[in-house]
Amino acid sequence: MMPVVALLQLTGPTTEPGFGFWLAATVVKLVAIFTVYMLGAALLTLAERKISAWMQDRHGPNRVGKGWLQPIADGVKNFVKEETYPDAANLPIFILAPVISFIPALVTWAVIPFAAPWGSRWGIVEMVLAPLPIGFLFILAISSLGVYGIVLAGWSSNNKYALLGSVRSTAQMVSYEIAMGMATIPVLLLAGNVSLSKIVNQQAFETWNVINLTVAFFIFLVAAFAETNRLPFDLPEAESELITGYHTEYSAMKFSLFFIAEYCNMITASALMATLFFGGWDIPFTLWDNLAPHTGIKTLLTLGAFATKTMFFLFLFMWIRWTLPRFRYDQLMSLGWKFMLPLALGYIVAIASLIVTLQFLGFAQGSWPFHLGLAMLNVVAVIVLFMILDRGRIISPASSRLDQRDIARLRAVSARPRTPLLPETGD
After folding, report:
1. With contact defined as beta carbons under 8 Å apart, do 212 and 358 qualify?
2. Which helix (H) or strand (E) holds 119?
3. Which DSSP helix (H) or strand (E) runs through 50?
4. What span, in angstroms and rounded, lies between the C-alpha atoms of 415 and 201?
5. What is the structure's pLDDT at 15?
6. pLDDT at residue 16, rounded to an integer
7. What 8-state DSSP symbol labels residue 398?
8. Does 403 score more than 60 pLDDT?
9. What is the pTM of this model?
10. Residue 360 region, left (φ>0) first, then alpha (ψ -120 to 50), else beta?
11. Which of 221, 184, 403 has its CA nearest to residue 324?
């Protein structure tokens, strides 16, 4: 027992406000965060159905509690369903795979600051569960472990469709993790730190990163869709060709754990985009929320601002699902390696060179000439990317390889009137 207490004292404060208060505040935040997190993941399943129904002019869930109790009904159904196990499956790994996929999705939220600090009469309470100085690196490291659950699920099922889905997922996540990590380097260059709290404060006193780093945000957004296996990048599932992909052989709660992990990853990715590019919990056009005294009203208002930004990106995930078609697998890999990675590397070089040049000229970071230079580079990069390289095709490597003349010829052939077939007659 004594070594555990000593370890806790090393991780927590030993002076005012006191170790006991810090431990109590940490436990309260732990219970509150993960309770809200799990309830949010459950309610997202209802939101997904309601939003898809709204976009397709349907009613959506409206039976159980007028639709509001549908997540509870789904949970009860999955709890009471029979667990099935394939005969040739590797049972220990088959059972462990959903857990390996679920836990990293749950743990990554621990380092994301979700509100301004609260100045209680016992001391300052940071509104983050684990304010690590390497918070962003922690997220990249832990979130990358989720792919092991998917790979093991496909392999242990001893099913060729599940194995193909897991192999696809491995290639997809490895390809887009690189682009996602590269997209955040310009953010870290401006913040000068990998702590998420420092990144939020830097945006609060200067400007949101999405204004000066639009291309980095675009790369991160596309990579986030690929990392969470959401349309148009849901190739590991691909119902039309792989049944349901890596979880073909799963049932009941083990099947549900994969979907809970997917929605938890969506929440984490949305919170990360809000934190890295949209100021996190910062309320725009004011510094009132960033300066002392840290009152409870500031904490509540900044929590509302952070939740609003996060929910916007969650809605974007669902909006894109019912708007864009699924990519072909060759388009997916081509986009990741031939477009996203070179673009991210080139953008890092451009941003780093501009920052060094501006500092060499004597313009301090945060001054208006510094931001003007970043804004000018951002405008040029956006014009080159979307108006010259892409040329209105949304994403060039994922567009059709057919020439416009071939497309016109195929349309002309399909528009020709066809001669009706004569009915067959007997001898």
Report:
1. no
2. strand 118-120
3. helix 19-55
4. 59
5. 43
6. 47
7. G
8. yes
9. 0.83
10. alpha
11. 221
> With contact defined as beta carbons under 8 Å apart, do 254 and 100 qualify?
no
Q: What is the pLDDT at residue 395?
A: 59
Q: What would the two tokens of residue 21 be?
A: 């208060």
User: On the CB side of 388, how many CA atoms lie within 13 Å of its CA?
Assistant: 7
Q: Say how far apart CA 11 and CA 144 lie, in whole Å.
A: 25
State the Cα–Cα distance between residues 17 and 23, nearest whole angstrom: 11
The two structure tokens encoding residue 367: 């001054």
Round to whole Å and give the CA distance between 22 and 33: 16
Residue indicated by tokens 């996929």: 101
- The predicted pLDDT at position 409 comes to 81
CB atoms within 10 A of CB 240: 7
Beta bridge partners of 139: none
Q: What are the pLDDT digits (tens) for 81-132?
A: 888 888 888 888 888 888 888 888 888 888 889 888 888 777 788 888 888 8
Q: Which three-class secondary structure string do you get for 198-233?
A: HHHHHHHHCCCHHHHCHHHHHHHHHHHHHHCCCCCC
Dig out the tokens for 331 from the structure. Answer: 């388009």
Domains of the chain: which residue ranges?
74-342
Could you tell me which residue, 9 or 304, shows the higher pLDDT?
304
Is the N-terminal amide bond of 293 cis, ω within 30° of 0? yes
